[in-house]
Protein: Branched-chain amino acid ABC transporter permease
Amino acid sequence: MSTSAKLASAISAQFTARARWSPLEVLFWLAALATIWLAPDHHLILTEIVIWALLALSLDLILGYAGIISLGHAAFFGIGAYTAGLLAKHALVSEPVLALLVSGAAGAAFGFLTSFLVLRGTDLTRLMVTLGVALLVREIANRAAWLTGGADGLQGIGMEPVLGLFRFDLYGHTAYAYSLVVLFVLFVIARRIVGSPFGLSLQAIKGNPLRASAVGIGQTWRLVGIYTLAAAYAGVAGGLLTQTTAFTSLESLSFDRSADALLVLIIGGTGHLYGGLIGAVVFRFAQDWISAATPQYWQFWIGLFLVLIVLVGRDRIGSWVAPVRRLADRVSDWRAWRRPPAVEPTAPGEGGRP
Structure:
């Protein structure tokens, strides 16, 4: 076998290993699936967690893998929310799944149009541009009260059954199962993308843009592509919120929505997809529990938690669970148990033949 063939085989094996699901991942999704039957009384708050997780996942695609920081991600979320609401209210698209795709397409279209503004300049410039775009979109929605309902929100939304079979109920059972399936499908797609050569090139751009350009990695269209995809994900998250609550308002376009999404991602960690999911669980349950105990000071305790994360260090926290992760990876690789131990060559005079 030639050297090039061996190199291609090694690269193919590496990508195959990256695509393999670990036991912890499988356990995570099985636990999420089990909550459909084990936690029926909490489906309303679990649906909120799923929507937050999807929004944080979309933000992680640009921040954790492309290094694009944003304080205006609520713009795409709100556009998706209003798109789903208008489609349902005026019976333009009655089927929720199809309407959700349209919401994602609307978010992607706006993300593509604004990406050329956002990708210019440094991190501070991008931060201010994203914030400005989100504030502009919110003000337009506020002024166009004839279309969006303004400060009163978009009312009179009636949702059809999902796929014509599953009706939305007051207890959120259908909404949670529907949202969880959408999150899983989009997560699988995102997982394949970040593990592909395209995803690795994004990480190279994030790590060192000059070196990435020097080795021939084009930056502009890759960043435009991932920014558009993240906007589509945020649009789907907004559409889910409207469909599961039958209501949307200017709050979906607010700065607080963008800031909370960034906070969720900081809690869970960036650059490994599951950070947004775990952060959404911690943030929403902490918000629910702390606000019940101290309604006026729950933000203080969330801030204190963030300070502790900074002081302890995320690397140190990760080292505490590293042995468990290595054991799970060892168990998952069942072929390693059947593989005979490698025998290292010995030097002359150390048990080997001279």
Summary: The first helix runs from residue 3 to 19. The two ends are 30 Å apart (CA to CA). Residues 39-277 form one domain.
